[in-house]
Design a protein that fits this description.
heterotrimer, A alpha+beta (about 160), B alpha+beta (about 775), C alpha+beta (about 290), B: about 775 residues, alpha+beta, seven-stranded mixed sheet, C: about 290 residues, Uridine Diphospho-n-acetylenolpyruvylglucosamine Reductase, domain 3, Enolase-like, domain 1, five-stranded antiparallel sheet, four-stranded antiparallel sheet, binds flavin-adenine dinucleotide, binds FE2/S2 (inorganic) cluster
């Protein structure tokens, strides 16, 4: 018999309870059990970063965690990054303004990663930002729009 | 005329969805009763299949069925169609959707499991037993044509797929007249697709309703519809193919894959929707890639560095099958004179089967290879004759007064290649200025004083874009006043929605937000071609412009009648038609649409049909030729062989830019892809044909941390070949990049006499060249 | 790419974990998951049981026991980087961790996981070799201490039984006028190194009194450059001395694989050793 567990976790401020096979990754659980498909699976071996979510505020690979390990924790996905009133966060705004995405597949990982990184490193410069997203592969943009967006968002966040 | 959008930096309409996590990619779609598939793939590069036992797999709880070639039934037992037949293909070979009795590359689909979940399907795949008789595999393209080389297919008598040649001018005369003849041989390796979204599809069959529907992560839904209809021997009108949001394409998603037959077919058999999402390991093994091309060239030139002729041979690795005709080798030949007027060319290509995944174009197709080859020969001439690299280029460029310039080569479809417009030397001047090229010797000397090795490299390119024949658009004003726009062109992130909305909004007189955009669904638009080869802007652009213009004219004509004004006095702004000088007289576009489509028993205004709609297939009357010059500045650490690209400058001309933000993004992404080719991406097979680099720790994609800032400047020489003056921009960043980076590395290591004959340039190889050079210098 | 089925266990004590391991033959311990999960997803490992250590009390955290750092095996790499005591007493560790994957993987990855995974090019084993750290392993019969030199048995095979877990690492810090240098070469930021070098130097009265040079990526296990260390002791720190010592690295037996030759590894070993020693000499005085 498949090994399953009941899992309760908070996603984007909302509590969810569901049964999952213990071998299910957190990423697959978010996407297919809860139906939040904004998190993307690009490699399922920890390198591309598309699946990055915030676990208790820290950026982690959701393909390298079992859903059962998130039991009792708080998860934030791309769907939960906007401000409480539904307006875009400064980082989302900046991605839009600076053409920080093309196909949008890497975008959830870029946004979650940079949200955590800029919170911890509000003064980050270009080199630091590039290192911070070295664990997030983008095949489309050449990274420049993303880096520009992050630099701009950092500025906005500091002014705001 | 209302607000102008063309040329404005408009933020993309696609983005709000995507930055909030509300995209809709194939794997985001869940259908009622949907099952999940996983494929068993060949584990040998070449083997006979003696027997397949699926009984253990089929018995696993949660498994619905397992299919092999025979299980698909006699009606579905034929090979896939050749998408692009061509006379030069001497031995054509496409694969069976599920291998029949022979597998010819690791990753070839052998069986498919349909189960309640993907995880269970994978459990079952592990339980399928295949009895293989392993056959010798041919892997090295350079020895594949030798006598006694293993054969890629057991029933063939050679590994030659075909030969082709680009030949024009008097090549014998050119070499006879030349003051100098120089030669160079080099290998070019370009990697795979690596769109961040892998391939994937969902099939659903509803025989009493919608027929067969395929959602697939693809660049050319219409091509798939046609091919699938043909393969099934069913009318393509009963096949609907939808490309939803697609997470990158880059060429390999432009074809038609076995899974795109198998998944809809098994959905039909199961009478339930079936989903298959390629995992990353499958992507490495079964999505087409570009790989090796060996070039052996000779250049004839005068003492002044004027090139008279180019001749030689290419050996092109084709992989095991020919899914895609000769597109790739052909596109390696067509750019051959590059940005230069070279009077005579004779270059042939041997297209060679190997037991590796079939190949297909990857961003730029063969163009980066062709341009790299020409640029290498320019560098060779520069080095051998001691003439500065920019100067050799100046002496050879096609000049503006030669435009339109017929190179002598032929493009796909047999049409002559004609450079329509552009000023290549001016573009070089622009990029040299942007790159502070003239100050480079000072930078280099200062760095050398600290023991650091800097180098600079130039590369110029042309790019044939906008390949025909068409990509149509329908524009229709709806009763709400919103404007529905439909086209066949699928987007994989290029921002088609925004671009087309800008064109239509400007023409019709609404805001881009009023455009309801739908694309890449064969049920929504009659026919389309596909998003490949930087062709969309130069095809959809004009058709959208034309359809929108027709709608505008129709609206103005009707409004003139309704408002009793002269058409010449009317203008449309923000969806309202107004009479100039009479601010009270107006009617909205929505009201006009309603007037045209009255309820029963009412009359449609005379001289009109009931829709405020037009469809156009206007495109470009030839291939607009974009061009660019790039400068790479690198630092090489001779101790480790590490290369860092410090700075990268681009001067680019893709004609009129519809949305400069998007053009910039295309170039930046393209350049990074090209730098990846030059320095990082390498798909390695062992000599048994086992792919070794099947994860992102081993296959090195370019990361933000190693990539330079890219400075871009533009020229806008309108193309005379279409109504908007646009040229394609999707690949112009990639095409020249490898040549610029490699030239820069050689420049940095001039002291060691380093000549690079292979890319991607890896550090170990570079240290070997450095040591060799140092040893020779010491002698 | 989904893991094969397994039974998941989440013990809350080390004893419980060890008991589960003893009870279930084909089981795998899950720490940060940054190496194990990819292998599970790719089905390179297909255990029947997965024993998750993340809920175990008392095996995470950093304790300063005079001049020895006691680090719990489940301490996240992120926490090693943020810890004030480590920054003060062994600043080479947070610096080197910058090279370990990416900040997202360090948020989960643990020191114990890295030492048990024992990738030949991994930074943490290379550092522990330099420090002659001692590892504490707990099994059914209690705890035992393993000096790092005896930890790697073979390629990616630590000296740990199937029913044991690593619980802690003791790192004896260097005191006095100490300098440290960590240098590696990887193709891209966050990749496993091709070669990594950790160097520690102590200087007394203008002469090197103690040296440790540890190389990652050249052999199946971290390699201490004993000859070079011995050659340095008694010498004054200086570029020529370092170059001569580093040249000894060129003669090591280095492995080769499909991507990298042994000659290239030797070249990197020499180059990077010299750079690491120079870096160490540059931050002598107080900063240690
Ligand atoms: C993209 C990426 C890049 C990376 N780059 C680097 C890099 O540059 N350098 C580097 O060193 N690492 C790198 N790693 C791996 C590193 O992140 C891992 O953290 C580390 O290798 C394993 O630690 P873990 O805690 O994640 O262990 P896990 O993955 O959970 O476990 C690893 C192995 O150790 C065993 N194990 C773990 N803990 C214990 C214990 N306490 N007792 C007994 N056995 C145990 C497990 O059973 C398993 O076999 C990278 C990983 C990724 C995904
Ligand atoms: S899907 Fe998790 S890192 Fe790629
Ligand atoms: S936008 Fe396509 S992968 Fe980043």
């Amino acid at each position: 018999m498949a090994d399953t567990r009941d899992i309760t976790l908070t996603v984007n401020g909302e509590s969810h309870t569901a049964t999952a096979e213990t071998r299910t990754s957190l990423g697959d659980f978010l996407r297919h059990t809860i139906g939040l498909t904004g998190t993307h699976m690009g490699c399922e071996h920890g390198v591309c970063g598309a699946c990055t979510v915030l676990l208790d505020g820290e950026a982690v690979r959701s393909c390298l965690m079992l859903a059962v390990q998130a039991n009792g924790h708080e998860v934030t996905t791309i769907e939960g990054l906007a401000n409480a009133d539904g307006t875009l966060s400064p980082l989302q705004e900046a991605f839009w303004e600076h053409h920080g995405l093309q196909c949008g597949f890497c975008t959830p990982g870029m946004l979650t990663s940079l949200t955590a990184f800029l919170r911890d490193h509000p003064d980050a410069d270009e080199k630091e930002i590039r290192e911070a997203i070295s664990g997030n592969i983008c095949r489309c943009t050449g990274y420049q729009g993303i880096v520009n967006a992050a630099l701009d968002a950092a500025k906005t966040m500091q002014e705001g | 005329m209302g607000v102008r959008y063309i040329g404005a930096e408009v933020q993309r309409m696609e983005d709000p969805r995507l930055i909030t996590g509300h995209g809709r990619y194939v794997d985001d779609i869940t259908l009622e009763g949907m099952l999940h598939a996983a494929f068993l793939r060949a584990s040998h590069a070449h083997a006979k299949i003696r027997a397949i036992d699926t009984s253990r797999a089929a018995a696993l709880p949660g498994v619905h069925r397992v299919f092999t070639h025979v299980d698909l039934g006699p009606q579905y037992s034929h090979r896939m169609n050749q998408l692009y037949p061509a006379p030069v293909i001497e031995q054509d070979r496409t694969q069976y959707p599920l291998a029949k009795d022979e597998v010819c590359y690791v990753g070839e689909a052998v069986a498919v499991v349909v189960a309640d979940s993907r995880a269970i399907a994978e459990d079952a795949v592990a339980l399928i037993d295949v009895d293989y008789e392993v056959l010798p595999a041919v892997v090295n393209v350079m020895t594949a044509l030798d006598d006694g080389a293993p054969l890629a297919h057991a029933d063939m008598n050679s590994n030659l797929m075909g030969r082709m040649r680009s030949q024009f001018g008097d090549i014998e005369d050119a070499f006879a007249k030349a003051d100098h003849v120089f030669s160079a041989a080099f290998m070019q390796h370009r990697g795979g697709c690596h769109s961040m979204e892998t391939r994937g599809c969902i099939g659903r069959d509803d025989p009493w309703g919608d027929g067969l529907t395929l959602w697939t992560s693809a660049q050319s839904p219409y091509l798939i519809r046609r091919a699938l209809g043909k393969w099934l021997d069913e009318p393509e009108e009963r096949v609907r193919v939808i490309a939803p949001d697609v997470g990158g394409g880059f060429g390999p998603k432009a074809g038609f894959y076995p899974e795109e037959i198998v998944i809809p077919l098994v959905a039909r058999f199961m009478e339930r929707p079936v989903k298959w999402i390629e995992d990353r390991r499958e992507h490495f093994m079964s999505t087409t890639t570009q790989r090796d091309q060996h070039w052996d060239l000779e250049v004839a030139c005068t003492s002044e560095g004027k090139i008279l002729g180019l001749r030689g041979k290419i050996t092109h690795e084709n992989g095991a099958f020919v899914p895609y005709g000769i597109l790739l080798p052909n596109s390696s030949l067509t750019p051959l004179p590059g940005a230069y007027s070279i009077p005579a060319i004779d270059v042939g290509v041997d297209i060679v089967f190997t037991n590796t995944v079939p190949n297909s174009p990857v961003r730029g197709a063969g163009r980066p290879n062709g341009i790299y080859a020409v640029e290498r020969m320019i560098q060779t001439v520069s080095r051998e004759l001691g003439i500065a690299p920019d100067e050799v280029r100046r002496r050879n460029y096609v000049r503006p007064d030669q435009m339109p310039y017929e190179t002598g080569a032929t493009l796909r479809g047999g049409v002559p290649c004609v450079y329509d417009s552009g000023n290549y030397e001016a573009l070089l001047d622009k990029v040299l200025e942007l790159a502070d090229y003239n100050d480079f010797p000072a930078r280099q000397a200062a760095a050398r004083a600290e023991g650091r090795y800097l180098g600079i490299g130039i590369s110029s390119c042309i790019e044939d874009t906008g390949m025909g024949p068409y990509e149509g658009t329908t524009v229709r004003v709806e009763a709400s006043g919103k404007v529905a726009v439909r086209t066949g062109a699928a987007s994989q992130g290029q921002g088609h929605h925004t671009m087309i909305a800008m064109i239509v909004a400007e023409q019709v007189g609404v805001s881009p937000e009023d455009i309801l955009f739908e694309s890449a669904d064969t049920a929504k638009f009659s026919h389309g071609v596909g998003t490949i080869g930087s062709r969309v802007a130069a095809n959809v652009g004009p058709s959208a412009f034309d359809a929108a213009t027709q709608v505008r004219e129709k609206a103005l004509k009707l409004a003139a009648e309704v408002l009793e004004a002269s058409e010449a006095d009317l203008d449309i702004e923000d969806g309202v038609v107004r009479v100039n000088g009479a601010p009270d007289l107006s009617i909205t576009l929505g009201e006009l649409a309603v007037q045209l489509s009255p309820p029963s028993a009412m009359r449609v205004p005379a001289g009109f049909d009931p829709l405020l709609e037009a469809t156009s297939f206007d495109g470009s009357s030839g291939s607009p030729i974009a061009c660019g010059s790039n400068v790479a500045e690198v630092e090489v650490d001779p101790a480790t062989g590490e290369v860092r690209v410090l700075r990268y400058s681009v001067a680019h001309d893709c004609g009129v830019m519809i949305n400069p933000i998007v053009v910039k993004g295309q170039i930046e992404g393209g350049v990074v892809h090209g730098i990846g080719n030059a320095l990082f991406e390498r798909m390695i097979y062992d000599d048994q044909g086992q792919p070794l680099t099947t994860n992102y720790g081993e296959y090195l994609l370019p990361l933000a941390s190693e990539m330079p800032r890219i400075d871009i400047t533009h020229m806008e020489t309108p193309s005379p070949l279409n109504s908007l003056g646009v040229k394609g921009a999707g690949e112009g960043g990639t095409i020249p990049a490898a040549a610029a980076v490699v030239a820069a590395i050689e420049n940095a290591l001039e002291d060691f006499g380093v000549e690079i004959d292979y890319y991607p340039v890896d550090p170990q190889y570079l240290t070997e060249l450095i040591d060799k050079g140092a040893a020779e210098a010491a002698e | 790419m989904k893991p094969a089925p397994f039974t998941y266990h989440d013990p809350t004590t080390a004893d419980e974990a060890v008991a589960l391991l003893a009870q279930h033959e084909d089981s795998k311990v899950l720490a940060g998951g940054q190496s194990l999960m990819p292998m599970l997803n790719m089905r390179f490992v297909v255990p029947d049981h997965v024993i998750d250590l993340n809920g175990i009390e008392g095996i995470a955290g950093i304790r300063d026991a005079r001049d020895t750092l006691e680090i719990g095996a489940m301490t996240r790499q992120r926490d090693l980087m943020r810890d004030g005591t480590i920054a003060e007493k062994a600043p080479i560790i947070p610096g080197a961790l910058n090279w370990v994957g990416h900040f997202q993987t360090r948020n989960r990855g643990t020191i114990g996981g890295s030492l048990c995974h024992l990738d030949p090019a991994a930074e943490l084993p290379c550092l522990m070799a330099a420090y002659d750290a001692t590892l504490t392993v707990q099994g059914p019969d209690g705890a035992r201490a393993v000096p790092f030199a005896e930890w790697p048995l073979a390629y990616m095979m630590p000296s740990i039984g199937p029913d044991e877990i690593l619980t802690a690492v003791s790192v004896p810090c260097w005191s006095g006028n100490v300098g440290h240098g960590f240098v590696e070469y990887a193709r891209r930021h966050g990749d496993f190194a091709i070669v990594a070098v950790a160097a520690l130097l102590a200087v007394e009265g203008g002469k090197i009194s103690r040296a440790a040079i540890s190389l990652g990526g050249v052999d199946v296990r971290p390699l201490r450059l004993d000859a070079a260390e011995a050659a340095l002791v008694g010498e004054a720190p200086g570029a020529d001395t370092f170059r001569a010592a580093a040249e000894l690295a060129r003669g090591i037996d280095a492995m080769s694989d499909a991507y990298v030759s042994s000659e290239y590894r030797q070249r990197l070993a020499a180059t990077l050793t010299e750079r690491a020693l120079n870096a160490a000499a540059n931050n002598l005085n107080g900063s240690a």
